[in-house]
Structures are given as C-alpha cells and as structure tokens.
Amino acid sequence: MLLDDAGNVFEATVRGRVMGRRKALGNTVVVGDRVEFEPEGERVMVGRVHPRRNSFSRREAGTRGGEQVVASNLDQVVVVASLLDPEFRPGFADRVLCQAEHAGIPARLVLNKTDLGAPEEARSILDDYAGAGYAVQGMSVKNGVGVEDLRRVCRGQRSLFVGHSGVGKSSLLNALVPSLDLLARHVNPKTGKGRHTTTAAWLVRPEPGLELIDTPGVRVFGLWGIGPGDLDQAYPEFRRYLGECRFSNCRHDGEPGCALRQAVEAGDLSRRRYESFLKLLRELAQEAARP
Fold first, then answer.
1. Partner of 100 at 20 to 30 A CA spacing, among 69, 108, 208, 233?
2. Is residue 283 part of a domain?
3. Predicted confidence band of residue 282 (pLDDT cuts 50, 70, 90)
4. Which of 135, 120, 96 is nearest to 215 (CA)?
5. Is residue 279 part of a domain?
6. Which residue has the higher pLDDT, 24 or 125?
7. Domain range holding 246?
8. What does the radius of gyration of the chain's CA atoms come to, in whole angstroms?
9. DSSP characters over the chain
C-alpha cells in the first residue's frame, strides 16, 4: 500500500496484528484512513489505524458479497453521471446517493456531457435532484464548461468521486488536476461501456485543502446496510411523507392511500426518482427473499 505523509508518498506494509486473524488487508486500511507508522529495517510498517469519522461502503460483487469499504473520512461524495454516451441511468445515481445518505455523508450530482443532448433534458434531470435536496451541476468536460465551478466547491473538502463506466469521471479529474494523467479511454462504440483504467481508489492532493479520491468506474453498484424496509429513509425528499400513508406498513408500491404516490401524482415528488425507488425496492426484496 502507499502512504502520503505531508506530500511524501512511499510504500508501506501493514502489521499482521492490525489486519486481524485473517491476515488480509481487506477493509482494514482504506484510502482516507489516518494511520501511525514506523520504520523497521528497510520497510515502513503501519501499526495503528485511527478511528474513522465516517466511511463509504458498497456491496462486493457476487450473490453473497460482503461489505467493501471504499474510502473513509470524507466530506462529500460526488456522483458523476452523463446525459448521453452512456445515457443517464437514475438507478445507478440513486444507489450511490442512497449509500451516501445511509453513511451520513453529503453528496452532489454532476451531470457531464450536457453538450450532447437537449438542454431541457439536462435541466429536467438536475431539477429532479435539486428538488430532492442535492447540490447539482451540469457540465461538459470536453468543452471545459463547469470545471472551475466544481474545483471551487471541492476546495477545503475531501471528495470521493464515483461514476458509472464511461461517464467521463477520469477526464473530469484530469481537467480538475491538469498534471494528473489518468489516461481515460474512450467509450466502446459498440457496447457503450467505458474502458476505465483506474483499478483501485486513490487520493490526490493537487493543492492544500483540495483532496480528490478517484474510484474505478463500475457497472453495478450494490447497496450495503440498506434493506427494503428502510430504503425509503435513504430518499431525503420522501421523509416528510413517511407516516402519512393509510397503512402503517405501506411499502409505497401500489398500496391504496400511499402518501408517496399521491405526492408524485400531485407533482410534489419526482416521478423519475419514485420509479427508480420502486425498481430498487423490488430488487432488494428479491435479494432478501433468497435463501
């Protein structure tokens, strides 16, 4: 693993007692952790990991995947999506936003490639998420639009960038840090999938107070610690309606007298977000029913 000590980056080894009985690094030390280390011969040994003030996790791939801690001690999560190429997928963005909400970490939505589609479609997406209480920003990394605004809101914070493969996250980070060469590759024209080169989360500090954490582009984001019974709590704009349904055990999925559905029909809640919630709710219910 690599350590950053006041700008000096070097390799280090984690002591076995820190890793536990399994002697595997796993979630023991992740990007963003504060650690104590000491030299031992020609090696540097990590002997202690300080308690985390927060952590952002996801579910490991596989039907029985456990927790994968992605990063810790964060000030915000930046969800990078694209209007087109690949087309905006509310399900992915909502999963990441739900996970940030569950972890108690502020989040914002950045919509890249707005130059590729109709301005009204980009505005509709951004309005839906702004209405949910999130900070939002439309931008075009290719044209340099919005880069300085995003750099400004990231200053003084440690920001975790998460995005679906191909949305331009690495290009965005290269624009924020011109000296950083992530070698972002183009989207495959046949599949629409990104050929992402980042293989592990890592932190860069281009200037004092500006800390950016890049993560590998992913195609599926599995929620961790959120089940069908508490998913509605991870949608902040839903909370004012919870407890107002006709039935106390309302799942908000077709039951009569559902306050959420009534708010959607009245135009007070985003239909896009509500339908995304229903899809995710059904997926979580299926997962919970598996033996």
1. 208
2. yes
3. very high
4. 96
5. yes
6. 125
7. 231-289
8. 20
9. -EEEETTEEEE-EE-HHHHTTTT--TTTS-BT--EEEEEETTEEEEEEEPPPS-EEEEEPSSTT--EEEEEES-SEEEEEEESTTTTP-HHHHHHHHHHHHHHT--EEEEEE-GGGS-HHHHHHHHHHHHHTT-EEEE-BTTTTBTHHHHHHHHTTEEEEEEEBTTSSHHHHHHHHSTT----PPPBPTTT--B-----S-EEEEEETTEEEEE---BS--B-SS--TTTGGGGSGGGGGGTT-SSSTT--SSS-TT-HHHHHHHTTSS-HHHHHHHHHHHHHHHHHHH--
The alpha carbon of residue 144 and the mean position of all alpha carbons in its chain are separated, in whole angstroms, by 23
The reply to whether 70 and 190 lie within a common domain is: yes
174-190 pLDDT per residue, tens: 999 887 765 434 344 44
Residue 100 structure tokens: 């940030």
Q: Tokens standing for 57?
A: 């996790």
Distance, first Cα to last Cα, the chain: 37
Residue length of the chain: 291
The CATH number given to whatever domain includes residue 79 is: 3.40.50.300
Preceding peptide of 51 cis, ω within 30°: no
- In the numeric block, the tokens 């999506």 are attached to 81
Could you give the number of structural domains in the chain? 3
224 lies in a domain?
Answer: no
Tell me the per-residue pLDDT of 226-259, one tens digit each, with 9 for 90 and over. Answer: 999 999 999 999 999 999 999 999 999 999 999 9
Residue 265 lies in a domain: yes
